[in-house]
Structures are given as C-alpha cells and as structure tokens.
UniProtKB/TrEMBL annotation:
Keyword S-adenosyl-L-methionine: no
Keyword annotations from UniProtKB, A to Z: Cell membrane, Flavoprotein, FMN, Membrane, Oxidoreductase, Pyrimidine biosynthesis
Annotated catalytic residues: 178
Protein name: Dihydroorotate dehydrogenase (quinone)
Organism (species): Flagellimonas pacifica
PANTHER family, sorted: DIHYDROOROTATE DEHYDROGENASE (QUINONE), MITOCHONDRIAL, DIHYDROOROTATE DEHYDROGENASE (QUINONE), MITOCHONDRIAL-RELATED
Pathway: Pyrimidine metabolism; UMP biosynthesis via de novo pathway; orotate from (S)-dihydroorotate (quinone route): step 1/1
Catalytic activity, EC: 1.3.5.2
Residues annotated as binding substrate: 70, 115-119, 175, 180, 250-251
Family that this chain belongs to: Belongs to the dihydroorotate dehydrogenase family. Type 2 subfamily.
Length: 346
C-alpha cells in the first residue's frame, strides 16, 4: 500500500516538508494507539534474529541510520516499525539550523536522495531531555561538531556530546564523514582521527568509572569515497585507538552513472540510495577481508530490498541500517529483510 498509494502522494511535495509531516503523523498515530498495529504488522520476533555485537544484544540486525531522527524525538515510535536499533543525530553541542533551504532532493529515476542538511539539530542537551524517556529499543548516538567550530577545536565538541549522551545511549558513532559541513572530512586523515578517537576512548573509560558501568562502544562512520590506502589507514586507526567498529558508509559526493536530470543530479551534497549500493558493499568487503574481520561492521548504503541487505551481510557486515530505502520502499522493507535473514537460519 505504501509504494502504490502513500508514497506517490507524499512525493508530490517538498522532501523536507514531507519528512516533518511524516514525523507528526507517526507521533499522532502513536498517541491514538495505532503503534500497536504497526508493531503487529511490521515486527518479526524470533530469537534467531538476535545478534550480539560489540557487547550489545540486538533483537534483530536491521537498524535505522542517523539523520532520520536527528533530535531523538521519535525513537520509540520508529522502533514500532520493526527496527532492532535506532541511531539518533547527528548531534552537535550547540543548536544549529543547518544549511540554507532547499537542501533535500529526490532523484526518482535513481531511487536516491541528495542532502546537504548540514547537521541541523537542536543541540545535544535538548536531545538528552528527549532520551530520558524509557527506551524500547537500543539507541546509537551519532555525534559531530558545530559548523563554526574549527577543526583545531573539533575534539572539544565531540567530547561535549560524548559526555552529555553517555548515560542515555547504548553506543556512539563518530561522524567525520559528512560532506555537508565544510572541512569535516579532513578529520578522517590519519593523525587527527587517531587523536580524536583515542581521546574519546579515554573519556569512555573515565565516564564508565564515574558512573560505575561498562564503557560504551565507539564506532567510526566513514565515507565511501576513501581510497584503498585510506581504508587501510582506517583499519590501522581502529586498532591503534582500540575502538569497537565501523559504519560503512556515509553518503557519497560522487555523481557517477546517475540517470536523473542534470540540474538535480548536480546539486551539492551527499548522495544516498541505490547508486551507493555497490560502493558501500565494496568498502564493507575490503574492510572485512583486509582486517581479517578484526572488528564489527554496520553496513549502510543503497539497501532497497532483502537481496541488497543479504549482500551487505555476505560481504562482512554484522548489522545493517536503512535510510533512503526506508523512504522509497516503506516500513514493509524492514519486515521483508528480517524474514529473509530468518529464512536462511531455518
């Protein structure tokens, strides 16, 4: 019903406006108890789907990627669509409006999206207030730096977010790979990235001791546009900094092979969706093989079908995340993927 009735209507309107409308609609449906219907229709509950990754137990391996619930307003309601985990953010210390609109574009011929949102969010401390509600699902906290913060001072922003969220999320994601904050990707270089991750790891130990609980897993989200040499550096950095895993991949700045109209396809920003599928899988496979599966990988990028999801898992991903595929295919995709994974274990 979503693809043939709901999506055509939603796609008549501006993409960012539809995003906020959908948020309000899901919230309203949940207030009237329809979330119980969503859970019944879309959730697949079977212990065979459970995964234990970086010390956490996931009820299933299909998550929602960062960028959808930036301010942690809808994580419980979104979990009713069958997700095994929800990643909030990207969050920054101070609120920021992001880049000027229009900044979100659908590429229908490619089943893709270009976004240049620019870490628009209400700030980490506002998100903390939202996260004080009881969680029905595992939560990842995706953190970044404010646009006005120089790369020299970026570590301070990440540490502020890390400390604020420590008691409220189950794992952390360090976002240095968004193409929409000027200069951010420079933090992927070996020296600054190693320094950043080591300091976050030390902070994790410190806060774990302070709150008398376990350290929180730290993952690094990387760009799909890295070369093989840079990916080898990533493997080395993960080992050196002793962090817990990788999310592969963020959006791409490449526009290779797009079918959509030139005016739309040349919009600045990060491209997600089907055109990213092949490259993100290549990065997953490279990291898994070259590291000898030394760390867990969350695979994301171009998952629009159960077959796409299984391909990521076969390449070496331990968990997967949806974003653009969820928008194009609807919540039934979560169920179909979990059913496909389950059928392999039968």
């Amino acid at each position: 019903m979503y693809k043939f009735l709901i999506r055509p209507i939603l796609f008549l309107f501006d993409a960012e406006s539809v995003h906020y409308f959908s948020f309000s609609a899901i919230k309203t449906f949940s207030r009237f108890g329809l979330n119980r219907i969503f859970r019944k229709v879309f959730s697949v509950n079977d212990h065979k789907l459970e995964r234990e990754v970086f010390g956490l137990k996931f009820k299933n391996p299909v998550g929602l990627a960062a960028g959808f619930d930036k301010d942690a307003k809808l994580y419980n309601e979104l979990s009713d669509f069958g997700f095994g985990f929800i990643e909030i953010g990207t969050l920054t210390p101070k609120p920021q409006p992001g880049n000027p609109k229009k900044r979100l574009f659908r590429l229908l011929d490619d089943q893709a999206i270009i976004n240049r949102m620019g870490f628009n969010n209400k700030g980490v401390f506002e998100a903390v207030e939202q996260l004080k509600k009881k969680h029905r699902v595992l939560i990842g906290g995706n953190i970044g730096k404010n646009k006005v913060t120089t790369n020299k001072d970026a570590i301070k922003d990440y540490l502020i977010c890390f400390e604020a969220l420590f008691e409220h999320v189950d794992y952390f994601v360090v976002n240095v790979s968004s193409p929409n904050t000027p200069g951010l990707r420079e933090l992927q270089d070996k020296e600054p990235l190693t320094d950043l991750l080591k300091k976050l790891k030390r902070q994790s130990r410190k806060l774990a001791n302070k709150h008398e609980e376990k350290e929180k897993p730290i993952l690094l989200k990387i760009a799909p546009d890295l070369s093989d040499d840079q990916l080898m550096d990533i493997i080395s950095i993960i080992s050196d900094a002793a962090i817990d895993g990788v999310i592969a991949t963020n959006t791409t700045i490449s526009r290779k092979g797009l079918k959509s109209h030139l005016i739309i396809s040349e919009e600045k920003g990060g491209l997600s969706g089907k055109p990213l599928a092949k490259r993100s899988t290549e990065v997953i496979r490279f990291l898994a093989e070259k590291s000898n599966k030394a760390f867990p990988i969350i695979g994301v990028g171009g998952i629009h079908s159960p077959e796409d999801a299984l391909e990521k898992l076969d390449a070496g991903a331990d968990l997967i995340q949806l974003y653009t595929g969820f928008i194009y295919e609807g919540p039934a995709l979560v169920k179909k993927i979990n059913q496909a994974i389950l059928s392999r274990t039968s």
